[in-house]
Design a protein that fits this description.
Number of strands: 14
Distance between the termini: 41 Å
Radius of gyration: 24 Å
């Protein structure tokens, strides 16, 4: 049964609007100031005062510029804290995001081509092939993907492989790299359709990777293989470690066992029971590298673990839907910041599960929790280190309300040392495989 909009309905709706005494006032405000400014509750700003009972020192905020590498920036920011605390490097010290970006692009290209071959027997309009071709690669990623890169390639200081035009403004590189990958996908699918030999396919794919490597060197620079680690510490003592490799640098100066850090999610949807682990089909970067794996827990448990990690002096990498109920200039993320439902007198409420199921929300951005304000042992607000530079928020730091965390935070990375025995057993389970388009596969 179908029903079109009828003229008498429109007249009824307009009459209903005309009968509202405040309709013209609201119309003038919203049409001139916009929805957010007209619905902002300034009380929320006073409640988000940036003072915290636990507050880690993390240095100067980094800036990802016009790229989607927040997951990298957030992860490398957690690691640089170890260098700051152990070796007293300066507050402006950064690890090279361009170095990991280079290898991520190269590995994602290979990962995509492998998935093209795996799905070559499926028609182009199959959902999986269409999903692959929609975005062959992009800037975003997840924690386990960053671990896979570091385990294979190590890391370097930012000065050893600095930013380029294309790392800071990635749109052009992504456009032409995806063009190249779609071109190569067509060629590989044609070879499979023609029953080409495995050797012929492998030879063709290697030629493709050679061309992609050249594109990446031209745009991002040649990846560092050895460098001199040179710095003055906060006491002005001079240090130099000559000819060190990226892998040796990570092992010696970061000294972090990445196997100890696991992804925990909060997805209260009916298809993902709590205390089970999940992975996502065709999500990754390094072929045969670390698998993306999430343990789904209730939010109350995640908060306890995050607080425990902060109390032990470790920051927390997390993924969220940063565009929801947030003000980047003021550095506030709070569910009470805007009240558009009151502005429009319309029911806009959705549960967290409904937002995930119906496409209203998913993880879009990764940041780092560096503090929390505890009142009677319970969190009220959280300190967040962003990667948008110092011109937003409080010199780049944001305040997140506890209620906002409940609704829009989806992922934490926690040291296994803080998990309970039951949580460790649950995390060790073989993961359930989710579809490629599942919201828990979203890239920050």
């Amino acid at each position: 049964m179908t029903s079109e909009i009828k003229l008498d309905q429109i007249n009824k709706f307009q009459q209903n609007l005309d009968n509202r005494k405040d309709s013209k006032v609201v119309e003038r405000a919203v049409s001139h100031q916009g929805i957010l400014a007209s619905s902002e509750d300034f009380k929320a700003e006073s409640n988000m005062h940036p003072v915290f009972s636990i507050d880690l020192s993390t240095g100067k905020v980094a800036d990802q510029k016009r790229s989607g590498r927040c997951w990298m920036f957030a992860a490398l920011n957690t690691m640089r804290i170890r260098l700051m605390n152990t070796f007293k490097v300066g507050d402006d010290f950064e690890l090279s995001q361009n170095y990991t970006n280079f290898w991520d692009k190269f590995e994602k290209a290979n990962y995509f081509l492998e998935n093209v071959l795996k799905t070559a027997d499926q028609p182009l309009d199959s959902r999986k092939v269409a999903w692959l071709m929609a975005t062959p690669q992009q800037d975003g990623g997840q924690w386990d993907m960053l671990c896979a890169l570091i385990e294979k390639y190590g890391i370097v200081p930012k000065y050893a492989m600095p930013e380029t035009f294309n790392s800071e403004k990635s749109a052009q590189l992504n456009k032409f790299l995806n063009l190249k990958l779609r071109h190569d996908a067509a060629a590989l699918r044609e070879l499979v359709a023609d029953n080409a030999s495995a050797d012929k396919i492998a030879e063709t794919k290697e030629t493709m990777l050679n061309e992609i490597y050249r594109m990446l060197v031209y745009t991002l620079g040649e990846p560092t293989t050895t460098f001199d680690f040179e710095y003055r510490d906060k006491d002005q003592n001079y240090h130099i470690d000559r000819g060190i490799t990226p892998q040796a640098f990570f092992k010696k100066y970061v000294n972090l066992n990445l196997e100890n850090y696991v992804s925990l999610i909060n997805s209260p949807t009916s298809d993902k029971p709590f205390n089970k682990t999940y992975t996502i089909e065709m999500l990754g970067n390094v072929v045969n590298g670390r698998q993306v794996k999430h343990l789904n827990l209730e939010m109350a448990e995640l908060k306890k673990l995050a607080i425990k990690q902060l109390q032990h002096g470790e920051s927390v990498w997390f993924g969220s839907d940063v565009g929801q109920s947030s003000n980047s200039q003021k550095g506030i993320m709070d569910t009470n910041l805007y009240v558009p439902d009151e502005l429009f007198d319309a029911d806009l409420a959705m549960s967290k599960a409904e937002r995930l199921d119906y496409g209203e929300s998913l993880m879009t951005h990764a940041m780092v929790i560096t503090g929390v304000d505890l009142v009677d042992g319970k969190p009220t607000k959280w300190k967040v280190e962003n990667s948008w530079g110092e011109k937003v928020g409080n010199k780049g730091y944001f305040v997140m309300s506890d209620e906002w965390m409940d609704q829009f935070v989806y992922q934490f990375v926690i040291n296994k040392a803080y998990l309970s025995d039951d949580q460790l057993k649950a995390q060790a389970q073989e993961p359930i495989v989710l579809n490629p388009w599942d919201p828990m596969g979203a890239l920050a």
